[in-house]
Design goal:
mainly alpha; flat
Length: 148
């Protein structure tokens, strides 16, 4: 083996490409995969027949076909309203009580962990708003005291 450094002489080191231009033209924006185009073409030709057979199967009691039809007509909701009895939240310490109630509701299965996380996120925003308001009041009081 030789240690010929001349093999690497012309290579660019560091960041060889300009910002926004990562190493080549890449795939054109909006271009589609050939397999997807072929599947779309097949579906385009037979879509009406397939839809009719699927509807007929759903009407005759095929629950999987009914599920497929309903998934298109009535999509699954991403979220649902969550109703939890929370205490009034006026101070940051009230948020601790509210978070305890959310944790209890998740533990009891009244709401899902994802819903609990979403409610906890709202409570965290409320806590930050309360703290910001309290800090503002402190700053105003300090400025008044200093200007005397």
């Amino acid at each position: 083996m030789s240690d010929d450094a001349s093999k690497n002489a012309g290579k660019t080191r560091g960041k060889p490409f300009k910002a926004g231009h990562p190493g080549g033209p890449g795939r054109p924006s909006g271009s589609r995969n050939k397999a997807t185009l072929a599947l779309d073409k097949m579906a385009e030709d037979d879509a009406k027949d397939i839809a009719r057979k699927l509807l007929d199967a759903a009407k005759s009691g095929d629950m999987r076909a009914a599920e497929l039809v309903l998934a298109r007509v009535w999509p699954v909701r991403r979220g649902r309203p969550v109703s939890l009895p929370l205490p009034p939240i006026e101070t940051a310490s009230d948020v601790v009580k509210a978070l305890g109630m959310v944790a209890t509701a998740v533990g009891a299965g009244e709401i899902t962990p994802e819903e609990g996380t979403a409610v906890a996120g709202v409570l965290e925003i409320k806590r930050k708003a309360i703290e910001t308001s309290e800090l503002e009041a402190r700053i105003v009081a300090l400025e008044k005291e200093r200007s005397k």
